[in-house]
Amino acid sequence: QVQLVESGGGSVQAGGSLRLSCATSRSISAFNAMGWYRQAPGKQRDMVAMLDDGSTSNYADFVKGRFTISRDNAENTLYLQMNSLKPEDTGVYYCYARYESKIAYDYWGQGTQVTVAA
Predict the structure, then answer these.
(1) Are 15 and 84 a contacting pair, CB within 8 Å?
(2) What whole-number distance in Å separates Cα of residue 102 and Cα of residue 93?
(3) What digits encode the pLDDT tens for the residues 31-52?
(4) Contact 87, 15 (CB under 8 A)
(5) What residues contact residue 99 under an 8 Å CB cut-off, 6+ apart?
(6) Adjacency order of strands within the sheet including 67-72
(7) How many whole angstroms separate alpha carbon 93 and alpha carbon 63?
(8) How far apart are the C-alpha atoms of 114 and 99, rounded to whole Å?
(9) CA angle 14, 91, 43 (to 5 degrees)
């Protein structure tokens, strides 16, 4: 069973920074893709940033230039560096991982709350 454990959320003033971490119970290099999603109250869960197994990253337009996704293979940890935070970045941030074999397996963390005050 794969476990993804997020940490690093919290409360910050607008313009501030936070770094989220996602520790995996499986070697991070085994996943075909990993990323971060977020969900604001009453809204759908949206993709924030994705990183494929070739280290190609993809960002949602609303975070481009402000957020950076990265991973540390030795630590089996995925990161999301969030700078210039805005109140609309508030939400629960979820770590996501996909493993593809004959079928695709999607895994989610439990989420970490990020609150950005105006």
Answers:
(1) yes
(2) 29
(3) 999 999 999 989 999 999 999 9
(4) no
(5) 2, 26, 30, 31, 32, 105, 107
(6) 4-7, 18-24, 77-82, 67-72
(7) 13
(8) 27
(9) 125
